Amino acid sequence: MLIQYFLTARKTRLSLDNHIAYRLIQEWPFCPRFGERVIRPAVVGWREWVGLPEIQRAPILAKIDTGAWSNTLHAADIEIIESVPESRIRFKLEEKGKWFERPIDKWRRIRDTGGHETLRPVIRTTIEIASRDFDVEMCLADRSQLKHRMILGRNFLRLGFIVNPSRQCIHTMIRSDDRVEMGSME
N- to C-terminal Cα distance for the chain? Predict the structure, then answer.
């Protein structure tokens, strides 16, 4: 049992210059095999500052929600633009903010805490958290009545995060120069 625990590590596929490489998320301090890159999980609080460099310059305070599966971003005045070859979505992050237009990656069925299902548009974007960059899927929904404008769910957190529920804002909202490109959620 103890030996099995020493050997547990999650493998995540990364695409590097058209080659498939594996990165190990280290769950126990053991020596990696030759040629493998070990990245320790980042400890995050129950809410953290998250950057959205493709959409907004200022960081957003996001709730780290282990009860949610997917990521959700607040979007106001959502408009779907049907076109060929891809459908697009127009939205604002604030009521009086500027418009953003992104391609719709897919649609996702989401069930809220009351058991009601809704179909939400999903976009792909880059987020910055804990000095790491991720290409992620982000559902868009009106969260104007809720406290946090962004939710990061389990599907994202499994890429290498440990949540400390007694802490918040462990990582600074200032973007560091030495960043780690972590790849995508796929």
Answer: 30
| CA dist., res. 172 & res. 143, Å (int) | 24
Radius of gyration of the chain (CA): 18
Q: What is the pLDDT along the chain (186 residues), one digit of tens a residue?
A: 333 333 344 444 444 444 444 444 444 445 556 556 666 788 999 999 999 888 888 889 999 999 999 999 999 999 999 888 888 999 998 888 889 999 999 999 998 878 889 999 999 999 999 888 899 999 999 988 889 999 999 999 988 899 999 998 888 777 665 556 665 555
> CATH number for the domain including 149?
2.40.70.10
Residue 184: name the closest of 69, 15, 18, 10 by CA.
15
Alpha-carbon distance of 8 to 106, in angstroms, equals 33
Regarding whether 83 and 171 lie in a shared domain, the answer is: yes
65-82 burial, b at 16+ Cβ within 10 Å, e below that, comes to beebebbbbbbeeeeeee
Q: How far is CA 123 from CA 27, 116, 137, 150, in A?
A: 31, 22, 6, 14
- Which tokens in the block code for residue 55? 């959409």
Same domain, 106 and 15: no
Quick one: pLDDT at residue 112?
Answer: 80
Structure tokens at 130: 């804990």
**What is the domain extent for residue 21?**
2-39
User: For residue 33, what is the DSSP state?
Assistant: P
